[in-house]
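Note to self: the last two entries modelled the partners one at a time, which told us nothing about the interface. This time every component goes in together.
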Amino acid sequence: MAGVNPEVRSMAYLVLLGRLIVSVAFILAALPKIQDPAAFAISVEGYRVVTANLAMWIALVLPWLELATGFGLLIPQIRRGSNLIIALLLIVFIALHASAWARGLDINCGCFNAHESEKTPDYLWLILRNIGLLTACIFVLIRDWQHRVRREDTSTS
Amino acid sequence: MLREFCIILLLTVIGVAYSLVSGLSPLPRAVTALEAGEICLADAQAIGVIWVDAGGIKKIEETHIPDALFFDEDDWDTRLFELMNTWLIEPRPIVIYCESEGCDTSKRIAKRLRQSLPEAEIYSLKGGRGAWQE
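The predicted structure of the combined assembly is written out below.
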């Protein structure tokens, strides 16, 4: 990036950092659930918003979607799509945690490890963590969009 | 953007297929509805219950849910007294389980206990100990 404005350069590093954090979080979240989908299905059932059969399908599909989008954030060809899906997933997770908290459910979060069930989840921490990841996601999305618009303007002029 | 979603979907489907083919995940099965007086494991864990193992002394020594009380029908009065003591200290729903979905002991004991402890909320665990071990 020789000759590039330092402000632009530091912003690029910030975007890269945001992307890396979200990507690593989603990959780490997906791996234990892929290895033990049955335990994850029990976690999903614990939220009491879907039937047991649907929970099983979610436990089968969701970890792979998390893994694909986690890696996807680092692949230029599918970066935007991955970012958008992750942002939507995080909004759903925040809503689910808030709902479980409001209902006073003592459940396994099922976030990073399917066997977290022994202790009561700290809902505030879970929600704040997801809000942090969502903020990083939105920041990266906006920067990508601005970058794209700028590039289109340059190519048309 | 549509192309990106298609690629992500394709990657996800490949992953799901791998889970199913490699045996990491069983095929999501059609779940039968709960019968009257039954509770599923997730619900029991969520509300915090008194676990009662009705699977026989040998089995409880091998494997049982932590803090579960052993319940032997042949020694009804002693076991009932023990259970009442626990329940009176901290009243919670009582969940009885036995070996598996097929065993009837838990349902039978639950039925008898509802008569002995009419004020308690008593269930039998769907899937029995098998549901816990899964």
